[in-house]
Amino acid sequence: MKLINYGMKNISMSDALSPDQLEERLYQIGAERYHNLHPFHKLLHKGALNKGQVQAWALNRYCYQAAIPRKDSALMSRVEDRELRREWIHRVTDHDGMEDDPGGIQRWLILTRALGLDDDYVTSYAGALPATRFAVEAYVRFVREQDLLSAVASSLTELFAPKIHRERISGMIENYDFIDKDIMIYGIRRLKQAPRDAKFALRYVREHARRPDQQKAVFDALIFKTNVLWAQLDALHHAYLEPRQIPPGAFVPDDPSE
Questions:
Q1: pLDDT of 136-192, one tens digit each?
Q2: How much of the chain is helix, strand and coil, in % rounded to 5?
Q3: Domain 16-240 belongs to what topology?
Q4: What stretch of H or E contains 4?
Q5: Where are the domains of the chain?
Q6: What is the C-alpha separation between 95 and 32, in angstroms, rounded?
Q7: pTM, two decimal places
């Protein structure tokens, strides 16, 4: 009988959790592992970084934003259920855009452009940290290769996204004179999009994760995704804060010692 611990009391994985217990444990994982707890995140939001460090964050985060429609397209390519594809496809158009909506990737470029970064440089990924690229591609690969339930469950970090977006928007507008509301349009838009996406994914997981092995796979998928987000901030902290070791070829602020 295997016992696991996801931040709460040990449970026997020979016993399936109820849907409500499953959901409770998912929220507990987020409370302990989501990247709003990361030191880099806290410094970013309270205005403790210089402009070059904020540039580095926005540049590297672009890699993640641009990968989202790729990972969601990979998921849909495996789905036989037409209704699931119809529900999931807006995740792609939310970021790639459709018709008059430029999409989330273009909204992120509003931020990087306002920070003084060239669009071609940002979209080339040339200045991104190696660890950022590896973490992002690991996420795309996970969604492409793992079972469908795990792939859906990995998106459940969206349950916690509105909180971090609110912190980011208010904190950065308040604490940096080079940030304003118009620049933070990506996060403002996600305040409406993320809860809708999370609600659907949570309902799917509650309905399909019934056996102990399925529930463990869901927990593992969410933990994996929180690790992907955490690793990106680890890389930023190491390169641009302490010990300030920027890898060869990665973005170097105009005054890295500022």
A1: 999 999 999 999 999 999 999 999 998 899 999 999 999 999 999 999 999 998 888
A2: 70, 0, 30
A3: Heme Oxygenase; Chain A (1.20.910)
A4: strand 3-4
A5: 16-240
A6: 28
A7: 0.92
